[in-house]
Structures are given as C-alpha cells and as structure tokens.
C-alpha cells in the first residue's frame, strides 16, 4: 500500500501530464528576457501616463487563475497574488509575505497557520480576507490545473477574518505549495462563484486578483494590456508603469526586430544565440540567473546493454558537458548536479558530476564486455531547438568510444507515446527538457523522473531501485517538518542516482536578461519561470 506521500506524488505525476504534453517542448530560450530602452518610464520626466511596451511569446490558454497551467502565468503573476512568494536563491529569507503577512507550522508539520494581512482588496473592491483565501484554496484543490499540489490538505478553516488554518493528512511543505505559480492564486469570491456556474466566465480577460495590475483589455492571440491598480496594498512594490502594453509575439526573430527597431521596450523571447549581439547594439550588459529548466537523457534500463550500470557510467563519462552547454545553450547554463535544477530545493553542489573522460569510458565498456562497441538509438523532441543543437555532440562523442548512435528527431507527442508504449521496444536514450511544477524538485523531479511505480508517468528510464525509492519517500515525509533532514535524505538519493546513472544529467539552463538603464522590470526569479514581473518584488510592509 502506498504511503500518503507516495499517493500525493503519484497524483502529481498523473495530473502533471497536460502541462508536460502541452509545453514541454519549449526551447531553453523560454527563460530569456531581453529589454530595450524605456518608453515613457516614470524616471523620464514624469509623463501623465507611463507606458511599457512589450513583445511576449506567452500565449493565453485560459484567464481562469484556478485552472491556469501554462504560459499565461506571465500575465497572471502581475494580476494575482499567492499567500507567499518564494524568493530567488541567495535572498536573505526563503519566502516573502504575499496575502499572508506571517505563517507558522506545528512541530509535526500537520497544521499550518497563515495570518492574512488587513487592508488588501481585490480589483472588484471586495476585501481580501480569510474566507476568500479558504474559498480560493478549496477551488484549487477541487479543479485547479495543478490541483495535485494540494493533495496533503485534509481541511482548511477560516478561524477569523485574518486567520487561515490548514490541517494536513500528512506532513508537507505548505509554504512551498502556497507559493506555487500554479494553483495557488487568491481569487475574489464573487468571481469564484460566477465561474462555478460558467467555466468560461474568465475567458474575455476578466480578472479578480489583488495584485499590482489589472487586465485592462485582451485581444485573443494579439494583445494584452495591463493597467496599474491604484489601491494596491504594497506601496514598496507599487507599479512603475501605468500601462503595460503587451503584443503577443511567438516568433523570436520577430520579437528581436521589434526590440531593435524601438517598436517595443522589452522582449521576453529572443534567439538565444543573438543575445550578446543585441546587448552590444543596445549598449547594455547581459545578466544571468537560475532557471528551473534542465536537460536529462534517460537510459532504457530494462534491457541489455543499458541494464548494466557500468555501461551507463561509461556513456556518462563520454559526454562533452561543457561543449553541450556552449552549443545547446549558447554558453548560458551550468552542468547539472543530478536532476534538481540549481536554485530549487533540494539542489546541492555536494552531489557529484561526471566529466568527460574518454579513456575511462572505454575502460568501463571493456569491463562490461563491450570492447567492440555498441549500437544504440536516441530520440529527442524536434521542436526543441537546444536539443537539436547539442544532440549531434553526443553522437560524435559516443563514436569516439566505439558506440554508434542512431539519432531520431520526433515531435514530442510522438516521442512520448513511443516511450510509454512498451519499454522493451522503446528507445535506448530519451532526451527530455523538464522543470518542477512548484519549488520542490524532491517531490517532483526526483520522484517523477526516477521513482519506480507500477505505471510510471515520467520515469522513462524505467529504473527500479528500492534503496532510492525509500530515500525519496522518507525525504518527502520530512520536508514539511524538518527540511534539513529532508535535504540530507534527498542528497543521499541523488548521490545514488549519479552512481547508478539511469540517466545523463546534462545541464541547467540559465535565464538571460539584458537590462538597460532606466527600465524597471523585476529580476528573474527561478520559482516563477513563466512570469515577467512588471512591478518590483519588494519586501512587504
């Protein structure tokens, strides 16, 4: 029988399918933000209306903040607020207050209490109070696109107007859950009631948030216009711009042309290989930050020769990691320490890495009885431009140790279906681009990608290791009550993962920013990868 943690995590894998199938093939440049010169900014003479014009690749699949599970997070993160914001790596504090001004948990991690700030209002004028928080979370648990993140929640009560108490079925990190970019927005009760009767209620661009911006207008597939909310409670994070005028521009080259011609001030998606040139042209500097996106190559561990750890280790030693980062990510990346991306819990630089060592790779292949070489197949998503660039480097490197690699570019859905059909007839190596749903890559990446189960969702190495499973399961039960102990267990699991090598841990893609003087856009936060924040993210009063 599965433990509560296992049941929750299996719910994560089941419910996570739509997100991965719909947007997993987005290239590494999805984390890229490049900005030009300020148009009408408030520090440029205090015009009557300050306007920031933006070219953004983010499509709107829904305006419903509960059902949202895709790239419309770029807009929703400026319109809605969660209970807590997760700070980027390196901040003095792990979290920053949002709708909740303080929070605490019981020693056993089963009861979480959030104190709701007074004075905040939704854009429709309704007060943000404990009942609104309760209704939002109950709606999210019931039908959110990421409803599975609330699996530990047994019940929630509004003890008074400013106190929300969550009772859990088992210990879980509800601070991380409450700070999720999906399934955790606090929504006006009036809108929740209206949308309960009409699932299309939000689709015209109606908003019911409490954030720094409102949705002024929406033209499907073409434009989103945000307007500053004058009654926003957080003066330290008040909007710099009165209007943010966003042209939906999926093509990166078009966005580059709009930026360099001065048609827009900011572009959220540009050809990664052109970043340095654009920065030079604009007289700006390139800045990098962590992102939650990373690349893994699964080995099919169910059949020879990849059922032998020595063969998997040999191939891991053959990979040219630095070249892959340079070619696949235009140099904007860091070699992975296992499948947890840098900056996301429970990332650790104590987890070892492979480095390219062709002599060691050949020796291990010989020890495994394959001195005469091997022939293997590798598949990757043809939509992913980074994979298309770096996969040939793996093929060339393997050839140097006597391994012939048959490379197949497939549409991701085809790649996915072939891999899920039957491991015995599936690919030998499956390259994937992955990120956690929220800022807990223990319950997501470590579980979803490599934990065994009778019907694995994304464990496309098909690996089954009881020791690894036990470590990940135990860590999951500790994360809500003793995060340091959970970190220790997760690190043990990751070291075992690297040693047994059911996959090749390639690189963590970086977010790239080119920020000119005078433009006010918040720094990239790896915990909200699809959101460009148009108001500063400042400590709450």
Output the keywords.
about 550 residues, alpha/beta, D-Maltodextrin-Binding Protein, domain 2, Dipeptide-binding Protein, domain 3, 2 domains, 12-stranded mixed sheet, 16 helices, 18 strands, globular, disordered N terminus
How many runs of DSSP E, i.e. beta strands?
A: 18
**Overall average pLDDT:** 90
* Radius of gyration from the alpha-carbon trace, in angstroms: 23 Å
CATH architectural category of the largest domain: 3-Layer(aba) Sandwich
Work out the helix count. 16
Task: Report on the architecture of this protein.
The chain is an alpha/beta fold and 541 residues long. The chain folds into 2 domains: 36-284, 3-Layer(aba) Sandwich (D-Maltodextrin-Binding Protein, domain 2), CATH 3.40.190; 290-510, Dipeptide-binding Protein, Domain 3 (Dipeptide-binding Protein, domain 3). 30% of the residues lie in helices and 21% in strands. Strands 1, 2, 9, 10, 11, 12, 13, 14, 15, 16, 17 and 18 form a 12-stranded mixed sheet that branches. It starts with a helix and ends in a 26-residue tail after the last strand. Residues 1-31 and 33-45 have low confidence and may be disordered. Pfam families: SBP_bac_5.
What topology emerges from the helices and strands here?
Elements: H1 4-15, H2 17-23, E1 32-35, E2 51-56, H3 73-79, E3 84-86, E4 95-97, E5 100-105, E6 111-116, H4 130-143, E7 153-160, E8 163-168, H5 174-178, H6 189-197, E9 213-219, E10 223-228, E11 243-248, H7 252-260, E12 266-267, H8 275-282, E13 285-299, H9 309-318, H10 321-328, E14 333-335, H11 358-367, E15 374-381, H12 385-399, E16 403-410, H13 412-421, E17 429-434, H14 442-450, H15 466-478, H16 483-500, E18 503-515
Parallel strand pairs: 1-18, 2-11, 2-12, 15-16, 15-17
Antiparallel strand pairs: 1-12, 3-4, 5-6, 6-8, 7-8, 9-10, 10-11, 13-17, 13-18, 14-18
């Amino acid at each position: 029988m599965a433990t509560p943690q296992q049941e929750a995590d299996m719910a994560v894998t089941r419910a996570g399918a739509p997100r991965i199938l719909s947007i997993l093939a987005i290239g590494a440049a999805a984390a890229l933000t490049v900005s030009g010169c300020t148009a009408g900014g408030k520090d440029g003479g205090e015009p009557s209306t300050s306007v920031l014009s933006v070219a953004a690749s983010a499509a709107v699949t829904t305006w419903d903040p509960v059902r949202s599970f895709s790239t419309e997070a770029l807009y929703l993160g400026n319109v809605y607020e969660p209970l807590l914001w997760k700070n980027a790596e390196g901040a003095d504090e792990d979290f920053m207050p949002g709708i909740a001004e303080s929070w605490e948990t019981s020693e056993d991690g089963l009861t979480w209490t959030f104190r709701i700030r007074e004075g905040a209002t939704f854009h429709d004028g309704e007060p943000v109070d404990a009942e609104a928080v309760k209704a939002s979370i109950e709606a999210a648990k019931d039908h959110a696109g990421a409803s599975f993140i609330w699996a530990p929640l047994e019940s929630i009560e509004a003890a008074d107007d400013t106190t929300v108490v969550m009772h859990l079925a088992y210990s879980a990190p509800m601070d991380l859950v409450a700070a999720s970019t999906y399934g955790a927005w606090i929504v006006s009760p009036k809108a929740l009631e209206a949308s309960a009767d009409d699932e299309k209620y939000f689709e015209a661009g109606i908003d019911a948030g409490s954030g720094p911006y409102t949705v002024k207008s929406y033209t499907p597939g073409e434009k989103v216009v945000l307007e500053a909310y004058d009654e926003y409670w957080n003066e330290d994070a008040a909007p710099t711009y009165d209007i943010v005028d966003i042209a939906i521009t999926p093509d990166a080259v078009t966005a580059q042309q709009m930026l360099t011609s001065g048609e827009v001030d900011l572009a959220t998606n540009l050809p990664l290989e052109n970043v340095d040139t654009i920065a030079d042209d604009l007289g700006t500097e390139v800045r990098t930050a962590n992102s939650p996106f990373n690349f893994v190559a699964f080995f099919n561990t169910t059949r020879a020769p990849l059922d032998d750890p020595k063969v998997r280790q040999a191939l891991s030693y053959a990979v040219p990691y630095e070249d892959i980062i340079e070619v696949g990510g235009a140099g904007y990346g860091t070699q992975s320490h296992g499948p947890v991306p840098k900056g996301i819990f429970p990332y650790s630089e104590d987890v070892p890495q492979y480095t390219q060592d062709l002599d060691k790779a050949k020796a291990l292949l010989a020890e495994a009885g394959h001195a005469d070489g091997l022939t293997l197949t590798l598949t990757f998503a043809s939509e992913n431009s980074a994979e298309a660039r770096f996969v040939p480097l793996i093929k060339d490197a393997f050839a140097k140790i006597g391994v012939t690699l048959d490379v197949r570019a497939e549409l991701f859905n085809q790649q996915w279906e072939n891999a899920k059909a039957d491991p015995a007839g599936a690919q030998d190596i499956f390259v994937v681009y992955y990120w956690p749903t929220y800022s807990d890559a223990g319950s997501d990446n470590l579980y979803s990608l490599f934990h065994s189960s009778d019907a694995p969702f994304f464990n496309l190495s098909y690996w089954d290791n009881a020791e690894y499973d036990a470590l990940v399961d135990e860590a999951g039960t500790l994360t809500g009550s003793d995060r340091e102990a959970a970190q220790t267990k997760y690190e043990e699991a990751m070291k075992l993962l690297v040693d047994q090598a059911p996959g090749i841990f390639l690189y963590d893609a970086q977010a790239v920013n080119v920020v000119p003087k005078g433009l006010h856009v918040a720094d990239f936060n790896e915990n909200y990868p699809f959101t460009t924040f148009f108001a500063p993210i400042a400590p709450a009063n």
